[in-house]
Amino acid sequence: MNAISAPSFIASKKLTLSDPDWVRYALIGLTLSIIGLFLVLPLLTVLVEAFAKGWTTYSSSLTHPDALASMRLTLLIALITVPLTTVFGVSAAWAIARFDFRGKSLLTTLIDLPFSVSPVIAGLIYVLIFGAQGWLGPWFSEHDIKIIFAVPGIILATLFVTFPFVARELIPLMQEIGHEEEEAALSLGASGWQTFFKVTIPNVKWGLLNGVLLCNARAMGEFGAVSVVSGHIRGLTNTLPLHVEVSYNEYDFVGSFAGASLLAALAVVTLVFKTVLEWKQNQDKKLKAKG
Amino acid sequence: MSISVNHLSKHFGAFTALDNINLDIPEGELVALLGPSGCGKTTLLRIIAGLEQADQGDVFLKGDKVTDKPVKNRQIGFVFQHYALFRHMSVFENVAFGLRVKPRRERLSEADITKKVHTLLELVQLDWLHDRYPDQLSGGQRQRIALARALAVEPSVLLLDEPFGALDASVRKDLRQWLRNLHHDLNVTSIFVTHDQEEAMEVASQVVVLNHGRIEQQGSPSDIYDHPANAFVSRFIGQTNIFDLDQQDNDWLQTAGLLTPQQGKIAHVRPHDIVIEKPTADSDAFVTLKDWQHLGSLIRIELVNSASNPAVSVYAEMPNDQFKRLHLNRGDKVDLRIRHAHWFH
Fold first, then answer.
1. Which end of chain A has the smaller Cβ count within 10 Å, N or C?
2. Burial, B28: exposed, middle or buried (Cβ in 10 Å; 0-12, 13-18, 19+)?
3. All residues at 6 or more sequence positions from A19 whose CB lies less than 8 Å from its CB, including other chains
């Protein structure tokens, strides 16, 4: 065995680890062209179409009352669902990471359900429950409460699809960190809330922010589930994604793509924030590990 | 009594962690809860702290019944095996935590907090690390910071869970000595959990030996070593040779001076209670010197009696120089004398 000298061993290892040049260039080229074709090109098309008739048409279609109403509704939905999902996510993660109880693994699986169910089905479920012919529909209409084809239905559908985002980020994180620091805080005289805000939350803050960010992107961008329950009432129950579709169906291409450009901008902003978060998190780690 | 525990029991499903524990710890003691893993020692410590609830029984701290009090109202200092320092806070903020979470009217001013934290950091000799984060410290430093953090709230009792368990042997030795001195200076009633009998004997003023959720014996280290209450304690504390007179061919043991007394059939003999000598001309030496190891000032000698059936190994210990004077080699026959034995059933 000693016959193999060290340098030749290293050289052979290097050879097996690096593929021939043509393979590398082919793979990089393939990846770039797929990204260009399926991601960048459509994004550019959105912008080109949005500005096809010039800046004034673009801005006037965005300031059209229906467009403004859809933006307001989208913001309202995000403003309501994101905090609720965050509270739910933190409590679910707390329960799963901290307590042992019967049915825990079932609960963990159920949290993922919205990811595996088609959003259309999610919308349909609420129509079946709260709709005019649904289980609870008659009771609500007797009391003059509108859920389906109204804002509450949109909120419910959005909640359904955004449920897992925060919880899924936090559960593995909190399981990894464990319970000891919280016990230490309690033994030092901290109350439950002090422990939560001074120890638990700071330890999971990057994961939490990441979850909130993704949740927000989904809440603003959700189409399927919302489409089923909204009823497409112009100026009332059209969110921004629905407004894009409605405009397109009516051959108002500038209006449609102008709305789409806003959603695309939201996606870009989300990505930038996510990158900044990851960068900050790494900085944090480096700072603390510096000797 | 500074810490009292009455009829305490705790079960985890079918497993009995603690079985009717009664324990009294006087003010100012440094007590070791000693036992093999799974004996319930950590559970007992956590119940005293309030981190765990007992199924039955009560806990008293300074005469107050605290069984139903939450941790934060018990005025205890708890040091965790893995330190549990707040990873997102600097060393200074870690130690200041207990002072900052106090209700506003009890809270010290910022200047007083700063002063107190630096005093505590000087006490554990780590003030120079005050702006570091836990990730940047060694295990021994983290443990001392954890101790300073626990002391910041001026606890009436200090509870330490395997405080040296995760440290290197050399750091552990230093820290033991240091903890003893610190306890001597502060004189706060302390309990620490350990599975290392040497550590318990070296550091503690009182040792409580636990096994299977029961207290086997409580006493000073010398009490427990010299007068073990039962076979478990005798085996667990220090080295011991065990001779079961019912199982063994025991004539040679009687020749060696082990006479059967009334109170038991199993003899536990400490290695230093076995004396070996060069055989005299008329003695009938039957024990062979097999090997020896240096343990610093002592020599540990392995002897074999190959005449008995089955062959029995016996361990003896004697000072280095005494052994040298005997001029013995491996394979020599020696005379063996047993000075003292503890008898158990």
1. N
2. middle
3. none
- Closest Cα partner for A160 from A242, A222, A245? A222
- Cβ-defined contact of B71 to A199 (cutoff 8 Å): no
State whether A187 and B49 contact (CB < 8 Å): yes
Q: Does the pTM of the predicted model rise above 0.90?
A: no
Tell me the sheet residues that pair with B219: B207
Q: How many other CB atoms are found less than 10 A from the CB of residue A249?
A: 10
Instruction: Give me the residue from B135, B150, B153 closest to A289, CB to CB.
Output: B135
Give the strand pairing for B287-295 and B274-277: unpaired
- In terms of CA atoms, which chain B residue is nearest residue A194? B101
* A2 exposure class (CB count in 10 Å sphere: 0-12, 13-18, 19+): exposed
Alpha-carbon span A221 to A269, nearest angstrom = 13
Interchain proximity A183–B70, CB inside 8 Å: no
Greatest Cα-to-Cα distance within chain B, rounded to the nearest angstrom = 86
- CB-nearest partner of A184 from B73, B80, B133: B80
> CA B260, B266, B270: angle at the middle one, nearest 5?
95
Integer Cα distance of B108 and B98 in angstroms: 11
For A57-98, how does the pLDDT look when each residue is reduced to its tens digit (9 = 90+)?
Answer: 999 988 999 999 999 999 999 999 999 999 999 999 999 988
Write the pLDDT tens digit of every residue in B304-337: 887 776 778 889 999 988 888 888 888 888 888 8
> In B, which residues are within 8 Å of A190 by CB distance?
72, 97-98, 101
DSSP B101-146: TS-TTTPPPHHHHHHHHHHHHHHTT-GGGTT--GGGS-HHHHHHHH
Put simply, the answer to whether A289 touches B136 (Cβ < 8 Å) is yes
Tell me the residue ranges of DSSP E strands in A132-288: none
CB–CB of B87 and A181 under 8 A? Answer: yes
Using one digit for the tens of pLDDT, what is the confidence trace for B244-279? 877 766 777 777 777 766 677 888 899 999 988 888
